Amino acid sequence: PVTDGSRELHSLCAQLEFLLQFDLKEKRSFFGQRKDYWDFLCQGLARCRQEHEGIHFVTSLDKLKTPVGRGRAFLRYCLVHQQLAESLQLCLLDPESLCEWYYARSPFLSPKRRAEILVSLYELDCVTFHLTL
């Protein structure tokens, strides 16, 4: 199993975060706080009208104060519960939402690249992650 001490885990999480932040449009909340991929994930999963346990879990953690921290916790939660590919796929279903959140260079806006990313993420479902949440 992959644990918190694994170098590969840190590399994987950094690459996932880079991918989710790449060409992300700058958006601000009502109070001026910069939105991040966490907000994109929340909105995308909310559109599916499903309450995602990962979102519920992360929002219950009082120590997490920033969207980036919440996003990182969500990625870890999804890796442990083998839900990363499915969760991201749900967020990528709506082309209008993708255009609202990402500029043209984002790989999420290319159907071919999006499919390649999802295939790779589904392969992670075979990996056991034992991470501290």
Kindly summarize this structure in a few lines.
The chain is mainly α. It has helices spanning 7-21, 37-47, 53-59, 67-80, 84-91, 95-101, 111-123; strands spanning 2-3, 129-130. The chain has one domain (2-130): Up-down Bundle (Methane Monooxygenase Hydroxylase, Chain G, domain 1), CATH 1.20.58.
Assigned CATH class = Mainly Alpha
CA gyration radius, whole angstroms: 14 Å
Number of spatially distinct domains = 1
Spatial separation of the terminal alpha carbons:
15 Å
Strand order of the largest sheet: 1-2
Could you estimate the helical fraction of the residues in percent?
A: 55-70%
Domain RUN: 3-133
Subcellular location: Cytoplasmic vesicle, Autophagosome; Lysosome
Main location: cytoplasm
Protein name: RUN and FYVE domain-containing protein 4
Main attributes?
133 residues, mainly alpha, Methane Monooxygenase Hydroxylase, Chain G, domain 1, two-stranded parallel ribbon, 56% helix
What do you see in this structure?
- The protein has helices at 7-21, 37-47, 53-59, 67-80, 84-91, 95-101, 111-123; strands at 2-3, 129-130.
- It has a single domain, classed as Up-down Bundle (Methane Monooxygenase Hydroxylase, Chain G, domain 1).
- The chain has a two-stranded parallel sheet.
- The two termini are 15 Å apart.
- 56% of the residues lie in helices and 3% in strands.
- The protein contains seven helices and two strands.
- With 133 residues, the chain is mainly alpha-helical.
